[in-house]
Amino acid sequence: MSIRASAKAARFTESVIREMTRLANLHGAVNLSQGFPDFPAPEEVKEAARRAISGDVNQYAITWGARSLREAIAAKFTRLYGVPVDPDREVTVTCGSTEAMIATLLAVLDPGDEVVVLEPFYENYGPDAVLSGARPRFVKMRAPDWAFDRDELRRAFSRKTRAIIVNTPNNPTGKVFTREELEFIAGLCRDHDALAITDEIYEHILYDGTAHIPMATLPGMAERTVTINGMSKTYSVTGWRVGWAIAPPVLTAAIRKVHDFLTVGAAAPLQEAGALALALPDEYYRTLAASYARRRDRLLPILQRAGFRTHVPRGAYYVMTEIDALGWDDDVAFARHLVEDVGVAVVPGSSFYHDAADGRRQVRFAFCKKEATLDEAERRLARLKPR
Ligand SMILES: Cc1ncc(COP(=O)(O)O)c(C=O)c1O
Fold it and tell me: What number of CA atoms fall less than 13 Å from residue 101's CA on the CB side?
């Protein structure tokens, strides 16, 4: 007998982002690595969860999601974006948007299929593609505005292309895709009979008057788009693990089957709280975006004074930075120095690229943190000396 891991599992490493949180805890560092808030979730959302548990909503929900939450998801999407969504046939509630993404890829991709991924990308998409047996085709977005080259993207589409993954607002770059960019991508999807799988988890975290445009709102796209979202970022409850996928009925049927056998379902009482959260008034989202704009504007000058070149995010809650002016050209060694000697944890840029060399001079800071946390990061980063 030879005991070994699968070839699939051998093709990717553990998450660098989650590893940085462990290192931050080990070294007592200010954790600006993983994207979770260190401030409380909204009181009314927490109270709804407590009520659901006390009211004995403690057994399995319907595998594809409690009716109340599916209805809230459909109603909110239609209210904000004008696209009708059938909660009975087009919504699947999952354990975080993380599960929505892997369940979707497992449901729509076959070995030999190709999936286009724009990079830098949220690190889960790489292993997700491997697990689904498909081949990722990476296409670069380039600073300063993280635009993609249209010819390059066109060339990445072929007869084998089944889908493209689009994350807007984007982690790690803070890019918010424009209507023109989305229309170009939509055109390629239509021409190649491919799906758009969009991760829209930062839909409400927007700055400088930018607007979030869901791919499913573009002409002819609702029928070939899987819109992935979740409670984690919008309601500051990353530990609840409640997400969802909105997709046309034929895809939803496949996603629901995969989801059922992966996890059976997301936490029932937290789904009830989700139904309440998704019905919060627009004011909640305006306040959320404004509070993140203040945090962004607090962190950017701290980083600039410390010697980082910064890319100003237009959405999401991260700042991508360049470390070359600090005399470093190895993101991993720099991140280690920062966490061990300076006491601030960040994510090495290479974890967002297929070819690690592309991220060698970048690190990502998360600013979903309390003012006091950012104050402490400022004190510590003031100690950072260029090499
Ligand atoms: C782009 C993106 N998608 C998905 C996730 C994970 O979301 P969830 O907590 O819903 O699984 C994150 C978390 O950082 C993210 O940045």
Answer: 25
Does the structure show a pLDDT above 90 at 133? yes
Q: pLDDT, tens digit, for every residue of 101-131?
A: 999 999 999 999 999 999 999 999 999 999 9
- Cα of 103 vs centre of ligand 1, distance in Å, is 14
Confidence of residue 45 (pLDDT cuts 50, 70, 90): very high
What is the position in ligand 1's atom list of the atom closest to the CA of 97?
10
Using one digit for the tens of pLDDT, what is the confidence trace for 15-41? 888 888 899 999 999 999 999 999 999
Question: CA 352 to CA 354: how far, in whole Å?
Answer: 7
CA of 383 to the centre of ligand 1 (A): 32
Closest residue to atom 13 of ligand 1, CA basis: 35
User: Which of 119, 201, 203, when mutated, tests ligand 1's pocket best, judged by the most ligand atoms within 8 Å of its CB?
Assistant: 201
Q: Give the other-Cβ count within 10 Å of 48's Cβ.
A: 18
Nearest Cα neighbor of 259 from 110, 97, 384, 387 is: 97
DSSP 218: S
Q: How far apart are CA 35 and CA 60, in angstroms?
A: 29
The neighbouring-strand residues paired with 230 are: 243
Helices 96-108 and 249-263 pack at an angle, to 10 degrees, of 120
Distance (Å) from CA 1 to ligand 1 centroid: 39
- As a whole number, mean pLDDT of residues 134-156 equals 97
Mean pLDDT for the chain? Answer: 96
User: 372 exposed, middle or buried (CB, 10 Å; 0-12, 13-18, 19+)?
Assistant: exposed
pLDDT attached to residue 58: 98
d(CA 320, CA 374): 16
Q: Which residues contact 12 (CB under 8 A, 6 or more apart)?
A: 126, 127, 130
Q: Which atom of ligand 1 is nearest to the CA of 231?
A: 10
**pTM higher than 0.70 for the full model?**
yes
